[in-house]
Amino acid sequence: MDYLKELIERYPNLSVCKTSIYDAYKILVSVYEARGKLLIAGNGGSAADAGHIAGELMKSFVKKRNTPPSFYNALCGITNAETAGFLSAKLQRGLPAIDLSNHNPVITAVINDIGAETMYAQQVYSYAHENDAFIGISTSGNSENVYLAMLTAKALAVKTIALTGSSGGKLAKTADVSIKVPETETYKIQELHLPVYHCICLMLEEYFFE
């Protein structure tokens, strides 16, 4: 299914983002083909969006993502057939994505010992490898902790995607791809971010799990 075409039909104002959405999708295809992972960060409602993205990628979204027979066979080598059948039937293939906003012990340690503005940069520095990607979500595009995380990602040769409002801010100027939805008020920006990242997740799922 052409999810990008459907997105624009449902949200015509997002037509200005069509190219950047597709470019972000292509970046993530290349990352996952290289067996990399996605790191995501945001604040407030954008932190909730980071978790939402991870949730759609880490398990089935709209398509079945059955485990391969090889996984069942491997389980049979270490447990009984009943348990092997249960696990291989229940588990779903995922695309690895880490919501950096949800690691409270790490975040609070960084805030206490280093400084709040580095709460995401420290995690990117610890997690990231060359074949990974980082999505920074900020309605203004100027959230300092997300911006510093993006700079860290770029220094580590990690591909970067910004998801912002129309102004774009510092994130849009820094990222490899910037998706700037055409709104200026925070809640309206967030209302458009959801269909954008749903579309990208749907496209990725179709590519890898058709």
Report on this model:
With about 210 residues, this protein is an alpha/beta fold. The chain has 2 domains: about 5-60 and about 95-210, 3-Layer(aba) Sandwich (Rossmann fold); about 65-95. Helices cover about 55% and strands about 10% of the residues. It contains 10 helices and 5 strands, in the order H-H-E-H-H-H-E-H-H-E-H-E-H-E-H. The chain has a 5-stranded parallel β-sheet with strand order 2-1-3-4-5, with helices on both faces. It is globular, with a radius of gyration of 18 Å.
Radius of gyration: 18 Å
- Structural class by secondary-structure content: alpha/beta
Q: Under CATH, the topology of the largest domain is which? A: Rossmann fold
Bin the strand percentage: 5-15%
Shape, principal axes of CA atoms: globular
Strand order, main sheet: write it out. Answer: 2-1-3-4-5
Proportion of residues in helical segments:
40-55%
Tell me the major beta sheet: 5 strands, parallel
CA(first)-CA(last) distance? 10 Å
What's the total number of strands?
Answer: 5
Q: Would you identify the CATH architecture of the largest domain?
A: 3-Layer(aba) Sandwich
